[in-house]
Write a structure and sequence with these properties.
This protein has 212 residues and is an alpha+beta fold. It is built from seven helices and eleven strands. Strands 5-4-3-6-7 form a five-stranded mixed β-sheet. A four-stranded antiparallel β-sheet has the order 8-9-11-10. The two termini are 34 Å apart. Pfam families: 1-cysPrx_C, AhpC-TSA.
Length: 212
């Protein structure tokens, strides 16, 4: 199954390090970050899960829940969490799905046979409160994810959902944003962007970032 942007994230029920999870019910009205790992007790994954735990406050202020996945069973996850807590100087504060039967992996197309026919790839999905998939990223097993980039994209999604703007290359929260080309009415522009804008080109209009 190929999951594309705008699709409803497939629902599922699966065991995890924090008990049985019904995914859509667990998400509630939050944003979600679902990310997969090749296996427990692997070095890059250990650093990723540790860093995710340290981002708890950053996720919370954006109304985001994190949930990880690998194809190992719950008892393996519990032992691995002890290692993560010890080596990364943190406490894992989110569930790790125990996808031993590959049910979720198949729903989310997380096993790529040309990469490895048994282990899940390093994929990530950002899911909004309407359960729609808003971002998909797949990394090779050798490369750890950039979680600052994931937070940046969530900031952009939440901002652009609420305002008629887009975010330019390398945008960071607080930078100028682009007024969408479809917005033509100058009175509406004045109301929406009271600080004004500068037109680099008629289709490229930059304005100070509105409040999220």
């Amino acid at each position: 199954m190929t999951i594309r942007l705008g699709d409803i994230a497939p629902d599922f029920e699966q065991d995890s390090s924090e008990g049985r999870i019904r995914f859509h019910e667990w998400l509630g009205d939050s944003w979600g970050v679902l990310f997969s790992h090749p296996a427990d007790f692997t070095p890059v994954c250990t650093t990723e899960l540790g860093f995710t735990a340290k981002l708890k406050d950053e996720f919370a202020k954006r109304n985001v829940k994190a949930i990880a996945l690998s194809v190992d069973p719950v008892d393996s996850h519990i032992k691995w969490i002890d290692d993560i807590n010890e080596t990364q100087d943190t406490r894992v504060n989110f569930p790790i799905l125990a996808d031993a039967d590959r049910k979720v992996s198949e729903l989310y197309d997380l096993i790529h046979p040309n990469a490895n026919d048994t282990l899940t790839v390093r994929s990530l999905f950002v899911i909004d409160p309407n359960k729609k998939v808003r971002l998909t990223i797949t990394y090779p097993a050798s490369t750890g994810r950039n979680f600052h980039e994931i937070l940046r994209v969530i900031d952009s999604l939440q901002l652009t959902d609420n305002h008629k703007v887009a975010t330019p290359a390398n945008w960071q929260d607080g930078d100028e944003v682009v007024i969408v080309p479809s917005l033509k009415d100058e009175e509406e522009i004045k109301q929406r962007f009271p600080k004004g804008y500068r037109a680099v080109k008629p289709y490229l209009r930059l304005t100070p970032q509105p409040n999220r």
